[in-house]
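SAMPLE LOG
Freezer: B-3
Tube label: C17
Construct: single chain, 195 aa
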Amino acid sequence: MSTPVLDRTAQTEHPVLDILADRWSPRAYDAETAIDEAKLASALEAARWTPSAYNSQPWRFIVARRGTELHRGVVSALVEFNQAWAARAAVLVVAIAETADAEGAAITHAVYDLGQAVAHLSIQAHSNGLHVHQMSGFDPEKVRELVGLEQRFLPTTVIAVGDLGSADALPEGIQRGETAPRMRRPIGETIIANA
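STRUCTURE (predicted):
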């Protein structure tokens, strides 16, 4: 069951695609509705078709659906703050960078390419009406142990995916973030050199 929220559209300095301006990262997830499998598959397909250096595709995902041991395991790897809200998400996706190939050669662009794959996943999910929130607050080693990942695979982020829920279900301190103004530093502070 989705709950109406304030307009979260970014107030950009320059025109961007509507889907980019509209995308935001909620913490209020519907704890009852199961993931729409077709929408999830589309988001993962968008990630699959991400460009990568040498078409090496150095990304992998763990997809953990709410109610499974895998989901509970991923939740247990989250820092306490993220556990307080992310456990309600229909799916937790762990984004993993393949930092070396099977022969041990370093894949120096792996984290960059993984970031692109997650961006594609996020935009496709949002286009399909799902909400996504990426987290860095988790223990990668717990995730590694959970699924027996080789050392060449680096758990990099955990991504909550699901339908929007009511902010009222969140702890009070987290509720404020759901309606706080969206902020970004000015583009002039982002560009280091521009000739």
